[in-house]
């Protein structure tokens, strides 16, 4: 049976973000034992202190809002009652996650960002968190940051995008049991989103205008057009022999002589058109 898993929204705490995971079927939660304290003889009990909220401790590992260093983010799991358990601390931003299912079995949750460590494990921008063991496995081989991941259950493949180099690819690559180059060697700019279309195609979005294994013109508004095979027309051409054919001026490098020049009739408006 295919395991169920889902990722939930970022949760903001002050100037930092905590990213949390909803419950995964493979993960078990252990209820905390009730404290053996009898308060029935005290009547109403008040709690005083320097706090602005309170919650019941119902699950082992349940945590209050963690104290974050600037720029760090936590990976959280959410308990059924809405409280949280901290799973791993990243030393920078966590930007994307997806559950990686390979051949019908949940392998873990792929976590991407611009961190260099997750849960104390060195990891350059991407790692796999195991929902059963809570073990973190770095997916070594990338240099840079990860902005988008898409876990494709049908092909048991994780598509990764961002600003990085890896293998023979730039800014986009795939993970199966190791890094696999895409047929087009990535893109020439950052990839910020990845999804799958209804026809099964993988769609990449970002700030790019070319593929990683092709060159693009420096001036984006200029395009070379082959006029020699085009339809060339003109109006009000001169009647002088050797100067009336509008095709005379296509790709000519010689002197402005007969056969190399096109002229209009004197004092007459006209046109030259290529299509």
TrEMBL record:
The keyword Nucleotide-binding does not apply. Coiled coil: none annotated. One of its GO terms (cellular component) is plasma membrane of growing cell tip. Residues 220-273 form the Rax2-like second domain. Residues 1-26 form the signal peptide. Pfam families: Rax2_2 (PF20842). InterPro entries: Rax2-like_second. Keywords: Signal. PANTHER family: BUD SITE SELECTION PROTEIN RAX2. This is Rax2-like second domain-containing protein. It comes from Aureobasidium melanogenum (Aureobasidium pullulans var. melanogenum).
